[in-house]
Amino acid sequence: MRYETIKHLKNADFKRLTGVQRETFERMLAVVEKGLRDFGRPTKLSRADQLLMTLMYWREYRTEFHIAQSYGVSEATVCRTIQKVENALVRSGKFRLPGKKALQPSDTLFEVVLVDVSEQPIERPKKAKNGITVVKRSAIHKKHS
Fold this sequence. Notes:
mainly alpha
């Protein structure tokens, strides 16, 4: 899936597909374009496609192999691209989640429920080396004797 095919989606559908608002995507794209250098051989993917690939990896938990097949690049290229985009976004400092202390105010009241659970052994017949249970084998021998 390329950015060119999804950029015309409605805002709600764009968010459903990528996991971020269109405005957030545009801000992320500006950071990625500014943060990544252009050198060497030109890439097969535009910066927007690289960002979309990273969001796909984060949102859908797809393997790098599957993403590589979707974009027609190697698995190593997907790995490098995701790392570069992540590093550019982290370096910018604009897309950080608040820490634990910000998410959990000190005046929060916790209600805790403890459940005491212990393991109980289950009685099962012992298996013999050839796969027949010991109980069945002894019953068979008694019938034939």
